[in-house]
Give the backbone structure.
Amino acid sequence: MKEDGEVFDTVEEDLDGDLDPSTASVLLEQSTARALRQFNVWPPLLLLIGSILLPFALGAVWWSVRHQHPYVGPTGGALLVMYSVIIVWIIAVSVALRRATSGIGGGSVRQRKIEGLGMVGMLIAVYVFQGALLHAHVSHAIVYGIYPVTAPFIFVGSAFALNSAVKEDWRKVAVAVPIIAVALAAAFTGPVVAWLVVGIGLGVTLLGLAVVQLRERRVGLPA
Amino acid sequence: MTVEELDPLIHAPARLRIVATLAALALGDSLSFTRLQDILALTSGNLISHLRKLEEGGYVAIVKTGGGTASHTTVGLTPLGRAAFDSYATALNDLLLGK
């Protein structure tokens, strides 16, 4: 699968010599950029899809609770919409992940699996704790409002940021920090608006990341 | 710095693309032969011949598992190969900057 306009469309693959330095430099940059795009588990298209789906999912819940006084919690229909959209998003992420990591073996693959299991475990713990809050008769505004829409992003996001910082992957840290900040800010906006704030925050973050990657591609940097 | 001083094992179009692609993987990772071939769009014979040269130089490690139709070949950059690629990229940059 060659891409238009790339230097290696015109080079003789089976010859060893006669590669001038400027052509070699372009070839090196293009090959690196192409490989990184191929191995990118978060391609721009996936991020763009997420920037639409996730605000829609959380927006559906906000729509169902926006006039509640006192706050009771999302309706069954809104939860159905939210979880359906989230499942579609998870499927899209899985397809992208499988495509990007196809044929790759080694330590990073094992590490990613362990990290994934850790994140899922943490997410389960967050929701089990939600059950404990309900059991302790904490108000619906917390149990069905502020907590479920902010806690997963605060705790799982922090773990993700910490793990990325340990690996000195500052790009991932730069993605996690605004999500954590938005979730923390949303916790102060109350059980109704929190759904909207987190939804918009996620959408903007994913859109921003997609735009950054697309701009990097345009200027020839590996995205 | 002159063109002749660039590592001849890497300074060839196909091998430069192979090494650059493998260098984009995480340290210690390997790539299946079929995926590498798909990314580079090289013929099987062409890719094998260049990989053999890189393997002889100690730049790549080729691991074949299984046998017959179930055989699976993976290719990864060795630490020597990664260091050689980094040196090559630096040398190429220096050459272009006239250092």
